[in-house]
Amino acid sequence: MNDTIELLKSHRSIRAFKDQKISRELLVELIKAGQGAATSSHVQAYSIIHVQSPESREKLAELAGGQAYVANASTFLVFCADMKRPLEAAERAGAEVISGMTEQLLVATVDTALVAQNVVVAAESVGLGICYIGGLRNNPGAVSELLRLPDHVYPVFGLCIGYPDPERIPEIKPRLPVEAVLKEEVYQEDAAEVAAFDDTMRTYYRARSSANKDTDWSHNLTSLFETKLRAHMREFLVERGFEMK
């Protein structure tokens, strides 16, 4: 293949970092690379909060469920879906804006994910490691208050970036077989592929160098679907102006 494809296939989440700072110049280049991502109708419905204050970082680590690397990583970014900027721009241009539409929420969330993934690929291309922090949505109200997020803006996830600790780099976690996710013409069932993947993941979990355990992919999913995961998010989003009309 080529170096870009090999880089993408080698991704792993890094949770242990060296005590080495990322320069401002490099950070700006990473953000510019992120901005090169596709964006629906050129809306660019995202904002990125660079959190440097040790006190804020510690608080965010706590709000995310006690994830210490939020405080310890060289750089921590909070990626926010931001419909405030485009709504206000359209209003200044003379539009009678209609806010709170479900499609606006989807556009902003997708835009945010795309720009973040571009940042991730750029970071990994220069030897940095990353870890997404979806745990910020455990307490989105408190995160929003800490970061002073206005209406029509919500924190989608955080991102730790730093230089990996070479002694604590995890193995690459297997992905579902292509046959399970690439379907020809119409949707096809994939129970056989999932069963085979469970065997792959059981072997991986038993053999990995840290936190090894005897489980598989399907059993790992049970905790996600036996509870109403982050049931507070709908009410929170409505309160922030994402009414899902």
From TrEMBL:
Nitroreductase domain span: 9-163
Molecular-function GO term, any one: FMN reductase (NADPH) activity
CDD domains the record matches: NfsA-like
Pfam families given in the database record: Nitroreductase (PF00881)
Keyword terms of this UniProt record: Flavoprotein, FMN, NADP, Oxidoreductase
Family label: Belongs to the flavin oxidoreductase frp family.
Full protein name: Oxygen-insensitive NADPH nitroreductase
Source species of the chain: Vreelandella malpeensis
